[in-house]
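Sequence design from tokenized structure. All designs in this work follow the same two-part layout: the structure record, then the generated sequence. An example of the structure record is given first.
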């Protein structure tokens, strides 16, 4: 079997897995409902199944699919562009600054004034991160400068978030901040989908445009330049795409880590050594990962509000340690 055929089969298998998990996500909840009954009830706005589908399960399943896809895609792009196997969206400070925007909204009481103040503030935080990254790095194409600027932004956002928790006089606001930062898709509506989806789509398109440049960059920056790759344009696409896409996702889901780190590593051996081919596979793989994690949240502790970000961290942290040990063995 040729490599191209294997790659096509992999994408088809991942797409089939996404559809299967999406259907299961519609059916699983406090009460199991056959997904076909839910879909059949779409036209009947007065049935209980239609209300459950429209108000609870469909928004949650769509967000799990889209958030997982953009996290997987951005992880693959960042690992290819930064040529760093440990890179993920949090590395350039986007997740931390988006979280800080949400924390400010909770701390200032904006969430009590308008229900969508929280996701809008998180989006603003992500956009501020882009402006700060541009200001800190200028037009340089140096990857180390970009990484250091991202680490500085993450540290600053983390410190300000800790300050907000420390100074919060309202224990309920502090508790809300902590719970939001754990990451969850519970109680999301189609309004949240409408809010996040345009940003996720735009971010995904920008990241997908880097595929050819990432293939060239795998041969080294000098070779990429000789092949006509504009590294400054590529860097802008990577930063903007990650900020817009991951910012939109974080705005409605909270901080969900490790998806962008794990998924590209699991799929890279199956797609070969071309980073561009890893992008669609990672987007589908990210969707599979987060849909499966969100389903497991509902199955493991149905009576408790187990947070999605906790589950991905429990899976991701041992994987991260294994990755570090593997890199150390390869280096020695």
């Amino acid at each position: 079997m040729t490599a191209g055929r294997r790659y096509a089969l992999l994408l088809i298998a991942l797409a089939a897995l996404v559809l299967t998990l999406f259907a299961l996500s519609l059916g699983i909840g406090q009460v199991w409902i056959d997904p076909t009954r839910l879909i059949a009830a779409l036209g009947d706005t007065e049935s209980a199944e239609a209300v459950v589908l429209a108000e609870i399960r469909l928004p949650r399943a769509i967000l799990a699919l889209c958030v997982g896809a953009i996290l997987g895609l951005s992880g693959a792009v960042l690992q290819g562009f930064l040529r760093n196997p440990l890179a993920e969206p949090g590395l350039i400070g986007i997740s931390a600054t988006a979280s800080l925007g949400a924390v400010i909204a909770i701390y200032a009481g904006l969430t009590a004034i308008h229900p969508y103040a929280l996701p809008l503030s998180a989006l603003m935080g992500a956009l501020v991160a882009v402006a700060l990254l541009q200001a800190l790095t200028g037009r340089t194409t140096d990857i180390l400068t970009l990484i250091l600027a991202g680490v500085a932004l993450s540290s600053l956002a983390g410190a300000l978030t800790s300050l907000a928790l420390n100074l919060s006089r309202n224990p309920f606001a502090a508790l809300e901040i902590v719970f939001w930062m754990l990451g969850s898709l519970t109680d999301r509506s189609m309004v949240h989908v409408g809010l996040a989806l345009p940003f996720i789509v735009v971010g995904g398109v920008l990241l997908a445009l880097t595929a050819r440049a990432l293939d060239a960059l795998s041969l080294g920056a000098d070779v990429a330049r000789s092949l006509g790759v504009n590294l400054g344009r590529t860097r802008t696409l990577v930063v903007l795409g990650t900020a817009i896409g991951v910012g939109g996702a974080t705005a409605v889901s909270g901080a969900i880590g490790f998806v962008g780190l794990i998924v590209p590593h699991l799929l890279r051996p199956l797609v070969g050594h071309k980073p561009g081919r890893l992008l669609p596979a990672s987007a589908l793989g990210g969707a599979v990962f987060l849909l499966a994690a969100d389903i497991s949240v509902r199955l493991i502790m149905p009576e408790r509000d187990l947070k999605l970000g906790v589950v991905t961290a429990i899976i991701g942290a041992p994987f991260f340690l294994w990755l570090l040990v593997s890199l150390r063995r390869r280096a020695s």
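Residues 25 and 295 are 6 Å apart (CA to CA). We note this feature because it recurs in several other targets discussed in the main text.
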